[in-house]
Write a structure and sequence with these properties.
- There is one protein chain.
- This protein has 190 residues and is an alpha+beta fold.
- Helix content is 25%, strand content 40%.
- The protein is built from three helices and eight strands.
- An eight-stranded antiparallel β-sheet has the order 5-4-3-2-1-8-7-6, with helices on one face.
- β2 and β3 form a beta hairpin.
- 25% of the residues are buried.
Length: 190
């Protein structure tokens, strides 16, 4: 019984060492130098969110761009745009670049129609639109100088509205809570 326990312990330890060495070797060989990674990999994913309809969102980019910061709705001159109908400037830790969001905003407003599509029984609703969004040429600064490419973004709004006593919800009510998430894959080069 002692020999069996020793054999099992030795085999387990050997497998553990091989697994660690295998993972270390795979990690080391799969991780190219920073300049090679930037040139070879352009796939990125963006997620931004807000809990109101203001011009600023929290944003995270992963993949070819590993960075985070704020996404601010701006006009081409850089002034804040509370209507969200022009550009989205990603103000990240290592620089900035902008996305042309005019088309996706127009599609989002069209999906809203004249009133938010609220379910009368729950006084809540959701809207989602997807569209290709290009990086604005010449907008990159810092590590993103010369950025180009695009993202296929989906904007999703989930909202709970304030019911009016004695009336079914019809989308004209003020909201109690909302979450707006903008997310999707893209390809970016710099």
């Amino acid at each position: 019984m002692t020999k069996k326990l020793l054999a099992v312990t030795t085999a387990t330890a050997t497998l553990g060492v091989l697994a660690v060495l295998g993972c270390s070797a795979a990690t080391a060989s799969a991780k190219p130098a920073a300049s090679e990674a930037a040139a070879a990999s352009t796939a990125a994913h963006m997620t931004a969110f807000t809990t109101d309809d203001g011009p600023t969102e929290q944003v995270t980019l992963a993949g070819a761009v590993g960075d985070y910061g704020q996404a601010v709705s701006v006009n081409p001159d850089g002034s804040v745009n509370p209507e969200h109908d022009s550009q989205l400037e990603l103000r990240l830790q290592h620089g900035t670049f902008r996305l042309d969001i005019a088309g996706i905003d127009k599609a989002f407003v069209a999906a809203m129609g004249s009133r938010f599509p609220t379910a009368p029984a729950t006084c809540s609703g959701t809207i989602s639109v997807t569209q290709r969004v290009a990086v604005v040429k010449g907008s990159g600064t810092g590590a993103y100088r010369g950025a180009s490419g695009d993202f296929t973004l989906t904007i999703t709004l989930d909202e709970v509205d304030k019911p009016t006593a004695g009336k079914p919800c019809d989308g004209s009510e003020a909201f109690l809570n909302q979450t707006i998430i903008t997310a999707g894959p893209g390809n970016i080069r710099f």
